[in-house]
Amino acid sequence: MKVNIRDALIIVDVQNDFCPSGSLAVPEGDKVVPILNQYILKFSEKKLLIVATRDWHPKNHISFKEYGGVWPPHCIQNTWGAQFHPELKLPKDTIIISKADKPDLEAYSGFQGTNLKRILEERKVKRIFVGGLATDYCVKNTVLDGLKEGYEVYLLIDAIKGVEVNLGDSERAVKEMESKGAIKVWLKDIE
Asked: Residue 137, class by beta-carbon neighbours within 10 Å (0-12 exposed, 13-18 middle, 19+ buried)?
């Protein structure tokens, strides 16, 4: 499969708090980093759009247990936990999309409450390639919203890891994404 000017790479929430030693660590979340770096290389060599989403929560975010949510505090704005993993090699021209950046707004999808759709439209993107963390939450919701918005969506199956609150959540998430039209791809599939 060849990538072209109508394609974009979307890297979802590869932040310190979702990696080992983070406050909401995805098991082996850091294992996606070397593979994502290879995808980044393939897209940047062709000067294609690369977007990185991030949770960018205020201290009093609605998703935190203390404020009625289900999660421990994580990815708080301007903290170590909210920074991208130090080994993730994002090019200088990567577009950063901050989500869930208001106290009362939850957002698992990179499209929710952001300008991601407008950016993709301006670049006339037709296909999006999505990887990152976590399979069963923010990756899944970004993929499903991408499909709803009419994009052809490719799930980078070798560059995702899930939270697995319940055993099998990630596998169920992949099946749901596929059933709605997402196409699984591996690094070897991309020329």
From this structure: buried
